[in-house]
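I am still getting used to backbone structure tokens and would like to learn alongside you. To get us started, please write out a protein record for me. Once you have written the record down, we can walk along the chain together.
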Amino acid sequence: MLPPIDEIVSNFEFLDEWDDRHQYLMELGRKLPPLPEEAHSEANRVRGCVSQVWLETQVDRSGPEPRLRFRGDSDAHITKGVVAVLIAFFDGRTAADAARADALGLFQKLGLSEHLTAQRSNGARAMMDRIRADAEGVAAAAA
């Protein structure tokens, strides 16, 4: 089970060396719940990532505002850790809040922006764009 985003941020702040953060990122990826095989679909595949990445967006309409629930997976260990950080950051937010959330700022705070390769950074942005687009679509439908 993934820790809450505040705990992830705190753990990243505690780790001084990039190698330790790199290991922690991969550990977070291992904590992702398994994505069912049927969710490894073209509809859930994130385009713009060098690695294979799947993000499934579900909408929880049980409260006054729709909340987004995310599940994801990747075939690459580091990328799977990036997926885990994004899920911890976005999961459970209202659609409107998720559409406004500053995931790039989070990546800068965690030091991921400067340590991920250009290809992984582009993939992370593609994931963020996908989540934002899903959030904006749900928010617009709820308005």
Q: What stands out?
A: The chain has one domain: 5-141.
